[in-house]
Amino acid sequence: MSQLQGRRILLGVTGGIAAYKSADLVRRLKEAGAEVRVVMTRGATEFVRPLTFQAVSGEPVHESLLDPQAEAAMGHIELARWADALLIAPATADALARMAHGLADDLLTTICLATEAPIAVAPAMNRVMWAHPATQDNLALLQRRGVRVFGPGSGDQACGEVGSGRMLEPLELVQVMAGMFGQPLLQGLHVLITAGPTREPIDPVRYITNRSSGKMGFAIAEAARQAGAQVTLVAGPCTLPTPAGVERVDVETAGQMRDAVAERATDSQIFIASAAVADYRLDTVAESKIKKTGENMQLTLVRNPDILAEVAALDGGPFTVGFAAETDDMHAHAQDKRRRKGLDMIAANWVGRPGSGFDADNNALEVLWEGGSASLGPGPKTRIAQELIGLIAERRQQQGN
Ligand code: CTP
Fold first, then answer.
1. pLDDT for 188-215, tens place per residue?
2. Domain 190-398 adopts which CATH fold?
3. Active site residues
4. Is the C-beta atom of 53 inside 6 A of ligand 1?
5. CATH 1.20.1420.30 fits 2-181, yes or no
């Protein structure tokens, strides 16, 4: 990870249970070539002893604003100047609130005001605290001031609940920190993404759909945003939260998804079709609820337009990336699909295997283009998404479009 080579990262650790992961984060940042110094809040020292961070960073840990000895060695202003970037991980709801309001009553918040280096936060808290309007407003305020927000991820929480609020894993944080240095990969580009299932109505109460959760597409939207792109996410029915800074267009049917994409495709430089679009819809949707009558009933389905193939066929259209779900002979089938649809790239995954695919948090992809391929994962969809965005940026540049 050459972007972190020789970079000076000041890591602020605040008082949340995820603080235990920050020791590993220090190790990973150092492996990537960064110099790391650690500032802990009093709360953080209740969870992890400073000695742990001293051991992994190889540097004294800074805790107090009013300690004359520490100030004499490397004072808060020197620390603030030393840093190339300040990362606060975990960032508790309290830390975000104190930063948002410009408090400076401990070492970390004082450094936040005193540094000219870019600041990033990796929030970690209970899902209800994360969703609270106070937290969201504080976060929006910080983002308006240029603070970068990495995560949170979702999943099992230390409090026993499940939802958004988990700190990103150390390796994911290393990757997004690397992205803070140098030109963001997709700076100045518009990325259009489809995600989730579509829903094809039968009558006013029934519809045909599929098991897609939208997790992969939402993770890709977040990764593209973090890579500096302007992102529009055309989402079928799914309840996932919209990633920060992403424009979301909600649709239900394949027809609506096609219209939303067609309106925006020519203004986009990259199109990523991760949606599980229904291949067929009802030829006529009943206006009132269909009553049961005989022992059998028949529905007539007609083919939906292929949104991805239509975009790929546009003259001077965007770099197109499709997805393929395969159960056997993945390479050959996916490469064939890529050529048939005229795509620049296709990302194939196995379906029906435990731990990857539709509703899972993890995934593994085989990414194919003309004359090449790469395997991503297995790993969390958030990480796979970042790696996929990296590949797309690289291929697009090599193709010169
Ligand atoms: N796609 C689309 N519009 C459709 C159908 C599919 O944009 N009407 C996109 C999907 O978003 C995905 C890719 O095309 O990127 C999947 O292609 P598809 O031919 O549907 O592949 P499979 O679902 O794997 O289908 P099959 O097994 O029938 O080849």
1. 999 999 999 999 999 999 999 999 999 9
2. Rossmann fold (3.40.50)
3. 159
4. no
5. no
